[in-house]
Amino acid sequence: MKQKQQVSHNGSNKRFKPNQKYDKTLDYLNSWMEKKGITWKQSIIVRKDASGHSVFATRDLKEDEIVCTVPKTAILSRKTSPLRDIIDEEELAGGMALTLCLMYEMTLKKKSEWWPYLQSLPQVVDLPMYWDEQALTHLEGTCLDPSTIVEENALLLEDYQSIIKPLFRKHAIFNEGKYMNFESYRRAAGLVASRAFSVDDFHDLSMVPLCDIFNHKSGSENVHMECQAEVCLECGSEDHVEHDAPTHDEHVANVKSISMTTNSDIKCKSELFNVYEDLSNVDLLLKYGYAHENNPFDVVSIKPDVIHNAIHDKKWFDKNRWEYWLSIKNTKLEEEEEENEEEDDGDEEDEELHCEFNAEGKPNHTLLLLLCIMFAKKEQYASWKNVKKLIQHVKSQAVTKQMKEACVIMAKERLSIYKDSLDEDLEGLQDKHLPSRHKWSLIIKVCEKRILHKVVEE
């Protein structure tokens, strides 16, 4: 999220017009947003179809044009929720805190301050966490292991039973909400995972009305969220406020707004897509419930045991060098992690090695590290007992012919894990009546296999 010291807005407050048919849900939402001070330009319109809401331009938009503004007082967060004191007392934070707040508001229904917004949310975002055992089998062989989903669901249930459920008996406020159970908590968790934004240091993860209607499409983002992230931790003020132990409400007037701003010129009738992270198809499916067939940020992961199976019998394989690579673990090689070099690396001791080929079929730094170690001359390898020297070398290392041949061997081993061929998956995607869960699984398989074939063929 882009940080900005102050958000301004010069648009007028106009009602969204539903696309063709009257939509009571949107009309209800519009009235509520006006009361909350949420403003938007006449230049955008929200439409609703079978897949949900989306935002379109009603005229040509210029770069850096603010299309909507949401006061932070209108968002749902751990600090705006009636549960804020309980959240602080129980020391809850992040996704768990917001999930609890959202579940509570949803069970209040019309009694909730956010009900007009909440009733506009989808009943469920079809994330893998909701898939049944049969649907999960379609993911077998992909980077998204079905067992991982099962484990995550088990952890979610454990958190609910050990942390959340005891709060219902401990705090009387929960008597106001009905149907607070694991299913309602799980639904809220899915909505938080797919729609929440990290707003600022005070609010943390938050549900942001209107801003969460903008869809995401990898490589097609044309708007982004702007707000001040560094704020007072006591009251959320963006100003430098001098106060001693203030209450939540004393400085609420000092908080400002969140805005959605265009990244570039946008043509009339074009859909507005928000900037999220650069996510692989697996991450898109986990967080938002879909995948892109042409995702420039997609990757294929390859586990160390698969790599070992592929190369352990090759003449150039060296057991001692392999073990040395394993001992390094995920040393900070990525350029964006250089800023954190002073942090203690001890927490990474038990992490798995994340070896990947990117969408272009190139090995990531961790995999390139292995290749450098395996093919280095004795003198050079001996100098790499100093890990910093090794890291510096890897950053400037070009992929040699020998390394490419090793990558081909690894890619072929990775391809052997899938049950079906690329052609069979592509044929399956032609079925117009394919259930969405099966469709997303096939798209992930197709994209992963295309990357691996690119490694093999190049």
From TrEMBL:
Name a GO CC annotation attached to this entry.
nucleus
The positions making up the signal sequence are none
Location of this chain's protein in the cell: Nucleus
- Which CDD domains does the UniProt record give? SET_LSMT
EC top class, as a word: transferase
- Occurrences of domain Rubisco LSMT substrate-binding (ranges): 366-452
Per the record, the major location class is nucleus
Q: Name one GO biological process term.
A: methylation
Q: What keywords does the record list, in alphabetical order?
A: Methyltransferase, Nucleus, S-adenosyl-L-methionine, Transferase
What one GO molecular function would you report for this record?
protein-lysine N-methyltransferase activity
According to its UniProt record, the EC number is: 2.1.1.-
The highest taxon in the source lineage is: Eukaryota
The segment(s) forming the SET domain are: 52-276
**Purpose of the protein:** Protein-lysine N-methyltransferase.
PANTHER family with a match to the protein in the record: N-LYSINE METHYLTRANSFERASE SETD6 (PTHR13271:SF34), UNCHARACTERIZED PUTATIVE METHYLTRANSFERASE (PTHR13271)
Query: What family is this?
Result: Belongs to the class V-like SAM-binding methyltransferase superfamily. Histone-lysine methyltransferase family. SETD6 subfamily.
> What's this protein's name?
N-lysine methyltransferase
